[in-house]
Description:
Blueprint: E1 5-7, E2 13-15, E3 21-23, E4 31-34, E5 37-44, H1 55-62, E6 72-76, H2 77-83, E7 87-89, H3 97-102, H4 118-128, H5 130-145, H6 151-156, H7 158-161, E8 177-179, H8 185-196, E9 199-205, E10 210-215, H9 222-228, E11 243-248
Parallel strand pairs: 6-9
Antiparallel strand pairs: 1-4, 2-3, 3-5, 4-5, 5-11, 6-11, 7-8, 9-10
Helix pairs in contact: 1-8, 4-5
Amino acid sequence: xxxxxxxxxxxxxxxxxxxxxxxxxxxxxxxxxxxxxxxxxxxxxxxxxxxxxxxxxxxxxxxxxxxxxxxxxxxxxxxxxxxxxxxxxxxxxxxxxxxxxxxxxxxxxxxxxxxxxxxxxxxxxxxxxxxxxxxxxxxxxxxxxxxxxxxxxxxxxxxxxxxxxxxxxxxxxxxxxxxxxxxxxxxxxxxxxxxxxxxxxxxxxxxxxxxxxxxxxxxxxxxxxxxxxxxxxxxxxxxxxxxxxxxxxx
Length: 250
């Protein structure tokens, strides 16, 4: 049985080598206990990552000086996607009538737009295919009759779930962009792991739910990682901490 405890952290910043360091974001905690084991979640500030960056080099620059044996580096999917040119300005997206229609039925939450605007729904149609999105929408409608939610994304898949639209709390310039899910997340995680010498996970975590999109090692427990990161220690606003380190409490 899972036993999860959040522990308040008195330390807000811990300096490492080369000017890098850990931070604990506001209203977040450093340590979480899952199944009787404590894990530190050490967030790392970076510059604003763009398509001019190489994600492997970014992780090497900011995370490598802080890594200890047994650590797991976790990186938000948006940071990876931005380096892959998968962040698209809103004005470059031209939603079709179907996208404008379907987005009206998307549940709105305080944690992000999701597919609730024509531009993000249009990108879902392009990423996943019209037939798949229509089938997911039909299944979702049936689910609502039985008061079941989440069926749409189960059918549409992670590409639809990972699409982020602009929100008031999104870090500029991405408050005017739609960001798609990262391409080849497992392969990218493996490339980063080879460069920094420890396991790497690419995560899609918000204040509502989470999933692990990529893992450098198939043996990594994705369900456990989701529990460790369930409260979104990287933050959901302008913290500018797109990566962090998971470290067992000794």
